[in-house]
Amino acid sequence: MKTIKIGGKINLKQPEVMRYSKLFGKTKHEAPSDANSKNAELLTKGGFIDKLSSGIYSFLPLGIRSLKKINEIIREEMNAIGGQEILMPALHPVEIWEQTGRNKTMDEILYRTKAGEKEFVFGPSHEETVTPLAKRQIQSYKDMPMVVYQLQTKFRNEPRAKSGLLRGREFGMKDMYSFHSSEKDLDRYYKKVIEAYLNVYSRCEMDAYVLQASGGAFTDKYSHEFSIKTDAGEDTMILCKNCKFAQNLEVAEGKYDNPSSDEEEKELTKVQVERGKTVKANAEAHNCDNWRILKSVVYMIEGAGPVGILIRGDFNVNENKVEKYFQKRVRPATSEELKKYGLVEGFISPVGEDKKQIESISFVADHSIAKMKNFVTGANKLGIDLVNVNIGRDFEAEDFADFVEVKEGFKCPQCGGPLTEEKAVESGNIFKLGTKFSNDFDLKFTDKDGKQKPVIMGCYGIGNTRLLGTIVEASNDEKGIIWPKSVAPYHVHLIQLGNNDEVNTMAEKLYELMRKDNIEVLFDERDARAGEKFKDADLIGLPLRIVVSKRTLEKDSVEWKERKEGNAKEVKIDDVIENIKKFINE
RNA sequence: CGGGGCAUAGCGUAGUCUGGUUAGCGCGCUCGGUUUGGGACCGAGAGGUCGCAGGUUCGAAUCCUGCUGCCCCGACCA
User: Fold this and answer.
1) Where would you tag: which of A37, A60, A448, A528 has the fewest CB atoms within 10 A of its CB?
2) Residue A259 lies in a domain
3) Do A181 and A69 share a structural domain?
4) What is the ipTM, given to two decimal places?
5) Distance between the alpha carbon (CA) of A530 and the C1' atom of B43, Å
């Protein structure tokens, strides 16, 4: 470590561990057996992170360097839209959580602790701290808009932590909060945040989509998710190839054709059949398409009885939409429950001779059956089906609503283009909070007209540790990680091959030159075999590998290999530094 | 929280069913030597309260009971 005196001040220069032999966190041949996702496997093998407990990780030097880079990108983008960095406490007195009611509603995920009689919550989010804080700072419309953010550790007792950094119990998050004097101003700022978020992701070389989200704990209208396409994702995105409109499957809407809508209503007929319970078996028994089957799916509504959802046979019911419609938790009815209500599994229908049989259950229909004619459905009796059933004539639905689960083959509700399904990881989420928290904490301001009004709030989160995991998940090959330049822990992996004075001297010299020019370099100076060093370099995945060996020195060159490229090339030693600088800034 | 599985050295694992020498192997680590452009080889070595607690037994990694942790499948989320 060098200490440099500048104008009487002592500037402590950080000693940087850049020599691989000294690095805390070496590569491993085998990942622990509990690393069950690509990011956990590669980050653990590469020596970036270390698991302490389920969903709880240490960041080793390589890992923290990448995380810091992500954080710096986030900071720059948030600062650019007027965000001011602060740091709020992780320990929250329980009272503020009681004040918003979330002490109860978020009970399952809250970590708690007590000191004597005083109860605390480990912050899972910071609306409860930022709102009282803002109260002491914001009094007038002139104080707004005001935007603060922090990079904090969040604590959430996830029912099931998994997938490495993708879902932790202790995880990093950038959370930003904006305060406005009008809805209009919030709307204006909200759009700016979307742009800033997209900048963050593109600077991390990630392909992010803005999705309309289900809204979660707050409100169903004002929420967007930022999702990154990767097979490891737990969310399903519905994407329009045409206009890029993206939706979360949970709330996705789509258009479809109604193949039988032009038909004449035919005479209702009763048919005796022997068939299986599925739609497919039903269609085969009647020699028709799946769409002609009228499907009845029975759900148990929390605190109420069973409800049958009527939908086209080739479509599935989206449970989230059912929950939204009833504003209650729902679950599929069990076979026992169906029996209890006198319903014959596989032959359930809203039509039946025995009206008593179905009076204990009400039927609500998906729009998909509204215009359809001549359905095939069961008769609530084993082995008896009804053909040419028509809505309005043979049965009525209590209501029509959208319950359909969008799938490939549906058309974009915006432009009519074809929709596709993609797996994605949710990486960010933004909400218009409105006055929910302002009201809870009585956060008001004096407007131009001299009247007291509640402050209008927005909140904006990016899971920075999750983003790190997502980047690895999205950018790797069979050999290891492929870091985007912007978030790689180092830019250059310098390798010296063979324990030979001439080679060692040149490698050391290059290493010093790079450091002098502030090129971030990891120097693998171990007296190890080539294969071992190459394997490690591939696993760690730095963007550029420079090899110095006897062979290259004979041509006054080094070997230049980019992690993304398959082939290596030779670069003259005299040109290396300049080329590296160019490469980094490309 | 419901269902299933696992827990043996830093990592990966055999042994458990059918109890019985000093708990075995690979990687990694240490020392010596040979090697040196895609995880080399030879020799010597260090490293284990067999997850924890209790029980059965002359004797427990192994059988029984309880607990804890981890993983997978479901309901939640950045």
Assistant:
1) A448
2) no
3) yes
4) 0.94
5) 24
